[in-house]
Amino acid sequence: MRVAVLSESSADEAAVRILVDAILKTPTTPVSLEASIGLRRGWPGVREDLPAVLKHLHYHTEAEAVVIVVDSDLSVPHELAHPRPAPRELRCRFCELRDLCASVLGQLRPRPHQAAIRVAVGVAVPAIEARLLCATQSHISETTWRQVLAAQSARYTARSLKIELYGSHVPGLTHETKMMIQRATELSSNLDLLSQRFPDGFGPLMQALREA
Amino acid sequence: MIERVEFNNFKILRDATLPLSPFTLIVGPNASGKSTALQAIQWAGCAIAKQPGRLVDFSEIRPIGILRTINMSVSVLFCWNGDYKARFTWGNPAQSEPYFEGIRGATSSVELRKADCLPVGVRHFNFDPTAIAAPARLQPIAELQSNGGNLAVVLDRLRDNSPEVFEAINVALAQWLPDYDRILFDTPDTGMRAIRLRAKGTETSIKASELSDGTLIAVAVLTLAYMPDPPRLITIEEPDRGVHPRLLRRLQDALYRLSYPESCGEKRRAVQVIATTHSPYFLDLFKDRPEEIVIANKNGLEANFVRLSDQPDIQEILQDASLGGAWYTGVLGGVPAGT
Description:
Chain A is of the alpha/beta class. In chain A, 49% of the residues lie in helices and 10% in strands. Chain A has nine helices and four strands; from the N terminus they run E-H-E-H-E-H-E-H-H-H-H-H-H. In chain A, helix 1 (10-24) runs parallel beside helix 7 (173-187) and helix 2 runs parallel beside helix 3. Helix content of chain B is 27%, strand content 27%.
């Protein structure tokens, strides 16, 4: 399957690609975005670039699916009960990305001889490092993060997760990518753990990919 | 670490405080005191270290718009973490060397001049691609010049004296600029050196004078980031100049290598870095670290600084916006008036 991955950094995308392959149980054929789209990175960049990325994939490539994964940071974690489409004020990044994809793709001319691009969205709570650390840190989960947000206390933060994973809150891109690949590879044989700990952010991603 | 620098009557910085972090990035309109702050820090640092610095003409540093007949002093006060301060005062038109005063608690003494925490080894960099590309005369010991003018000689010395560092620079260069994989040297004349870069996977190399400005600045920044014995404080003007927006993360990594050596497994002392920029793309990379961003604001003939994380309601203002985009709109300040 030809799959494009859009995330907040090239390091994130390397990790997401490994997990996607594990979910599909087969290596996907990467559709590179770096080579053709000016990606601005970070959550604002993903959101702002997404319409152009979708149009590029639709009209210029043979991509069959696009996987979009961002960090929740301090936004509202997704819940399956969120309305669809979700109001912007909800500040749920999962809903915003899902609705934006539906809106953009719904306006495009059908591709000749090719099905519409399938979309799989995931939101890492609060950051992708949480997923990569959950195998070794039993307290890291969506449930814990909701408690952290509700209590306004910091049992862990996006920054502390970075320090835990990389040994620094400012890892270089090379080191960050290496660690992400290493941890994602380890996790790829334990996807059940990810869907148990992150049912609302990772679960829909897994489901969408398996239905693609 | 220096926590802040207070300026009094130093050019446009009549009453301004520059808050600092291990790494600090200053953004703001032209003529808002960014370069002036770096200049003041450099001059004070040169005075401490007795480095050969340019003599300061008092008339150059007093505020614009103040009559020459009015008696006044100009000062720069460094405040370290802990209870330690150092003040430099220029108070006499005939005086080029500032008066130094070390302060610890209530004690004020010139004896503190030799205290270990003074910023000995302040270096200012404003890389000039033309200077970087020009051949330089070989020296037994070479310290990178402010404009990068002797970069070829510094790299030549590293190749001979610290080959592991030279190799690390080559590896980083190939990651940053994948079109190239090695720094080579030319000898355009006896005792002279210039660099050229080898095109990846080929025997073709491109001489420095034909490399792009951004490429030359990237090599200079990388060299600075990997210096075996860097100074304690580095100020650097617009290190992103000429660098493609997609490569700015590599630039950030190189500068962080200085400020957070532990982040790349180095055990050397951290270098405090103060940089300036006008690039919203570069700024975007610091959204998670607002404490490292300082906004320079110009109000008529005065300027001041505000740390981004100290701005009220900053989290709500930024929320889902990109930091560079928010800065560009003007909601954070630090944009030219009337634009």
